[in-house]
């Protein structure tokens, strides 16, 4: 049973960032959009300097390396945006936690009382 009243829930308010349908779409398309770039990153990290030198020391190697670097940089920007989502979700949970802790303190139900 919920212990929240209308006054309790109106004291803190934020809207969803996206809908459940958008969330489902993001999940469905994630690997198709970012899986290749993640794999290129991991492939680069799984190679030694000698292996990378050999791979790019051919005709067109510099162009290939530039294309790889562009893909990895794009993935980096994606991860930075993902970090912003993590920070937003964390801030929301802290706000809710703080609010519930305040309610517990007011009602005497807090484990800290």
Number of discrete domains: 1
Largest sheet entry: none
**Quick one: how many beta strands?**
0
Please give the share of residues in helix: over 70%
Instruction: Please count the helical segments.
Output: 4
* Uncertain stretches: none
Radius of gyration: 24 Å
Overall mean pLDDT: 86
* Structural shape: elongated
Query: SSE string, helix = H, strand = E?
Result: HHHH
What structural class results from the helix and strand content?
mainly alpha
Strand content: under 5%
What does this structure look like?
With 113 residues, the chain is mainly α. The protein has one domain (19-107). The protein has helices at residues 6-10, 20-45, 49-56, 61-107. The two termini are 22 Å apart. The mean pLDDT is 86.
Short overview:
By secondary structure, the chain is mostly helical.
Characteristic key phrases:
113 residues, mainly alpha, 76% helix
SSE layout and pairings?
Elements: H1 6-10, H2 20-45, H3 49-56, H4 61-107
Helix pairs in contact: 2-4
